[in-house]
Amino acid sequence: MAGLDRRGTIASTRAQALNADDAELEAHIQCIEHIRFMTCRFRSAEAVVGAGANELKWRSIDGQDP
Predict the structure, then answer these.
(1) CA 20 to 30 Å from 26, out of 10, 33, 36, 64?
(2) DSSP state for residue 55 in the 8-state scheme
(3) Is 7 exposed, middle or buried (0-12, 13-18, 19+ CB in 10 A)?
(4) What does the pLDDT profile of the chain (66 residues) look like in tens digits?
(5) DSSP of 3-54, one letter per residue?
(6) Alpha-carbon span 39 to 31, nearest angstrom
């Protein structure tokens, strides 16, 4: 019986380790998704600011609205 208990404990420990690894992996995936999301938002904002800068340059060259 001691051998069976030991195997059960090892299996239980392995299951806990796998669950912990899954949780850690999920945390990394969420972090990567957040970075991707923020990068997309930054690029969108950069495009808007860039468009605004081009508009300001256009207006400053001829003094009229485009």
Answers:
(1) 10
(2) H
(3) exposed
(4) 444 455 556 566 667 767 777 778 788 888 888 888 887 777 776 666 666 655 555 554 555 554
(5) HHHHHHHHHHHHHHHHHHHHHHHHHHHHHHHHHHHHHHHHHHHHHHHHHHHH
(6) 12
Joined together, the tokens standing for residue 31 give: 């972090």
Looking up tokens 């999920």 gives: 26
For residues 61, 62, 64, 66, the Cα torsion angle rounded to the nearest 10 degrees is -70
- Report the candidate in 66, 37, 61 with the shortest Cα–Cα distance to residue 51: 66
